[in-house]
Design goal:
By secondary structure, the chain is α+β, with helices and mostly antiparallel strands. It is about 15% helix and about 35% strand. Strands 1, 2, 3, 4, 5, 6 and 7 form a seven-stranded mixed beta sheet that branches. Strands 8, 11, 12 and 14 form a four-stranded mixed beta sheet that branches. The longest helix has 21 residues, at about 5-25.
């Protein structure tokens, strides 16, 4: 017979989940790369202003992309420059390889390529430049291919750094926990000062006893929350509410990333970069 999760149950579940998240980060080398490597925190494609041609936006989304002439695939090395003045040398991919990593075609586009059915997005040239994107080390100027698109004033930009030089955040597939466990996610990091972390957790309208939970490791800090869910069958509105909590760590947070226990994703004190 199922029984409601107690506070002790929730804490035990949280500790287990936090340990698994920390292991996922450590096994992938994320904790080291967070301050020494290159971890993009947004999509590797920076889209142009589509307002002048909304049809091409749809074409891009459907992968109806072509080139008017062959692209070079000459690679080499480039330099990533971070906001704090540090830099990192990295291998690059050529314009042809970067082009192949744009959205793949979905569905057919007529040879004539005329609206309203669809219109090809045609790339006419490519040049190597840089783009400013969000990373775990703040904003950075990163080598990128700028593709000139017929019909657009701005280029379509794709980061040129080879994937071998990037460290990606984990898609955490850990033992699933649902609301019956009494564990809820961290939704937004409000502040991090010294040994104090304030953040919002997502709770249900009838949840009670909401509180913040934290588990710290040498290289990262995992946060989340616990609640006492309403009993099964209790009438309640279906809505997500934000509840502010505060937790304390044994030593100052410092530069350690703060990570949500349920998703394994880093939390930020300001809106995350676009598409994060």
């Amino acid at each position: 017979i199922d029984r409601p999760a107690t506070a002790a149950d929730s804490e035990a579940t949280f500790r287990s989940q936090a340990t698994a998240v920390a292991k996922a980060w450590q096994d992938r080398g994320i904790t080291t790369a967070w301050t020494k490597g290159f971890i993009p925190l947004q999509e590797l494609v920076v889209e142009p202003d589509w307002s002048t041609n909304g049809v091409l936006k749809a074409s891009y989304g459907n992968g109806w992309i072509r080139t008017s002439s062959p692209l070079s695939d000459v690679s080499g090395r480039g330099v990533i420059r971070f906001a704090d003045g540090t830099s990192l040398s990295a291998p690059l991919v050529g314009a042809k390889t970067a082009y192949s990593q744009l959205p793949k075609r979905s569905g057919a586009c007529p040879t004539a390529g005329q609206p309203p059915t669809c219109q090809w997005l045609t790339i006419t040239a490519a040049r190597l430049s840089t783009v400013r994107i969000g990373t775990s080390r703040g904003q950075a100027n990163v080598p990128a291919w700028h593709y000139t698109v017929d019909g657009l004033r701005q280029p379509l930009v794709r980061v040129a750094v080879a994937r071998s030089a990037m460290t990606s955040l984990p898609v955490v597939e850990l033992p699933g926990h649902n609301r019956i466990d009494g564990i809820v996610p961290a939704m937004q990091l409000e502040s991090s000062r010294g040994d104090s972390i304030a953040f919002d957790i997502g709770i249900g309208a009838c949840d009670k006893g909401a509180r913040g939970l934290v588990r710290e490791f040498p290289e990262l800090i995992v946060i989340g929350g616990s609640v006492t869910p309403s009993e099964a069958g209790t009438p309640c509105t279906s809505q997500l509410l934000l509840h502010r909590v505060e937790v304390r760590t044994n030593r100052p947070v410092g530069t350690r990333p703060i990570v949500d226990a349920l998703s394994g994703r880093p939390m930020f004190t300001q809106p995350a970069p676009p598409d994060h």
